Amino acid sequence: MQMLYNSDHYAVVQIQLAMALEDPAGEDAAPQLMRGGYEIVDKFARKEIYIEGALAQRFKEGVEALIETSPSVEEIDAYLEGYTQLAHHPVVMH
Predict the structure, then answer these.
(1) Strand order across the beta sheet in which 2-6 lies
(2) Where in the chain does DSSP place strands (E)?
(3) H or E stretch including 81?
(4) For every one of its 94 residues, what pLDDT tens digit does the chain have, with 9 covering 90 and above?
(5) For the chain, first and last CA: distance in Å?
(6) What single DSSP character describes residue 25?
(7) Taken in order 72, 44, 87, 16, is the CA torsion positive or negative?
(8) Among the four 2, 51, 64, 93, which has the fewest Cβ within 10 Å?
(9) What is the Cα–Cα distance from 72 to 32, expressed in whole angstroms?
C-alpha cells in the first residue's frame, strides 16, 4: 500500500498485489501476476470505494492529466468527489 493523497476531506491509497503462481511441478514460482487498484476514502461522509481494472486506469489517467495543470487541493478534491459518489461501503477502520 502506498498513500498517494491525503487532504482534510479525502485520502487515496494505491494497492498493488503480487500473486505467486505455481509451476507445473507444484513448486511456488516467483510472483508473476500483478493486480491492484485504488482505495478512495471520503473522510466526511465516512465512506470508501475500491476501484480496479478499467475504472482504475481511467482514474489514474485523469489524475495524471490533472497534475499537469498544477491543481489546487480544491480541484483535486472535486475530481475525487466524482468517484466517491459511487461509494457505498462505510469506513470501519482507517
Answers:
(1) 2-6, 10-22, 28-42, 47-52, 89-90
(2) 2-6, 10-22, 28-42, 47-52, 89-90
(3) helix 73-84
(4) 889 999 999 999 999 876 666 665 656 555 555 678 999 999 999 999 999 999 999 999 999 999 999 999 999 999 999 998 887 767 765 4
(5) 13
(6) T
(7) positive
(8) 93
(9) 38
